[in-house]
Structure formats: C-alpha cells, structure tokens
Amino acid sequence: MDKLEEVKKLKQLLDDGIINDEDFKIKKAQILGITSEVPEEQEESVDEVRTKSKSLDDYEKELIKQSKVIEEEKLDTKLEDEYYRREKLKEKAKLDAKEEMRSKIRNEQKEFINEKVNKTKRILKWILAVFLFVFGITSISISTKNGILYIPLGIIIIVLGCMACPKITDKTQKYQSYTMHKTAIVWIIVVIWLVLCIISGNNVSA
C-alpha cells in the first residue's frame, strides 16, 4: 500500500512537471523492485528524483494549506455577502415603512383639506340659497307695484335657490338624470330669467 502511495506521489510530480517521464520510470522501477540497478548516466537523475520526492510531502501540505485558505476566503466572502444582503433588506424595510408613513400622512392631510373644502362649499351654497329665496320672495311681493312679470322672475329665483340648497341637493342625488343635467338646467333657467328681466325693463321704460 505504501509503494502504491509513493507511485501516486511520483505521478503527481510528473503531472505537475516537476519530473520527466524518464525520471518517473526509473523511480517507479526502484519502488516496485523491478530493478535495483541504475545506469550510471541516470544516477544524477535518480538523486534529483529522490530529492524532489522528499519535497512531495511539503508540496502536498502547501496545496492543502492553499486550499484551506481559498475555502476560508470563499466562506468569508459568502458571509460578507449575506451580511450586506441582510443590511439591504433592513434598509429597504425602513424606507418602505417611512414611505408608507408619508403616504398615510398625505392621505390624512388630503382628506382633511377635502373635508374643509366641502364644508366651505356647503356653507356658501346655504348662503346663496337663502339669498335667492329672499330675493325671489321680494320679487313676487313687489309684482303688484312693478308689473306681473316680477312673479315669474321671483319663481325662477326661488327655483334656483332650491337647486342651490344643500339639503335639497342631498335628497336629489338618487335621480341620476337630474344630477347629470343639473348644470345645463341651471343655465337654461338663468337665460330665461335674463330674458324676462329684459322684457320687464322694456315695459317699465315704456
């Protein structure tokens, strides 16, 4: 078994280019006991092979040492990569949490602003509705003095006041046709009111 190991070591030296084929054959023959005589011209080569064989163990140890160093470097690199990967995941989680918090704050601010805007619009609509109601009732009340045309003018203004009233608007939301054409209806009523105002003005001047 020891002879076989020595032969394997010699083969390794041959593969690594440390010895040539002739040196390998001579030394192998010596190890296996095929011949005990070595030609004089080959004595120097045999001595050289013997010297190189002695360094085989050191060579193998160096290879093992280098292999261990490479494995340790690979392990260190893997651990370092794993560490950076975890750190990146932690940083991404922090950024996602911050972005989610910012988004939540923006949504809350947007909802707050929309709520305030809607409340302001509702108050303005109430003011407009009350003004139109008062103006319409006043127009009807003065119709006896300024002419009968003030009655339809007052009615139109009261209708506009009803359309502007938030409470009535809330109740009419279920009528989609009315809601879709509400703006056009308002403009038509306003045009009719302007026409009646012009007619009324011409009658007063006449």
Q: Determine the number of helices (DSSP H or I, runs of at least 4 residues).
A: 9
Q: Roughly how many Å apart are the termini?
A: 140 Å
Shape: rod-shaped
List the domain count as a whole number.
2
The major β-sheet equals: none
How would you describe what is shown here?
The chain is rod-shaped. With 206 residues, it is mainly α. Helix 1 packs antiparallel against helix 2 and helix 6 (150-164) runs antiparallel to helix 9 (182-205). It has nine helices and no strands. The chain folds into two domains: 2-54, no CATH class; 113-205.
Short description:
This protein is an all-alpha fold. It contains 9 helices and no strands.
Topology summary:
Blueprint: H1 2-15, H2 21-32, H3 43-54, H4 56-141, H5 143-146, H6 150-164, H7 166-171, H8 176-180, H9 182-205
Helix pairs in contact: 1-2, 2-3, 4-6, 6-9
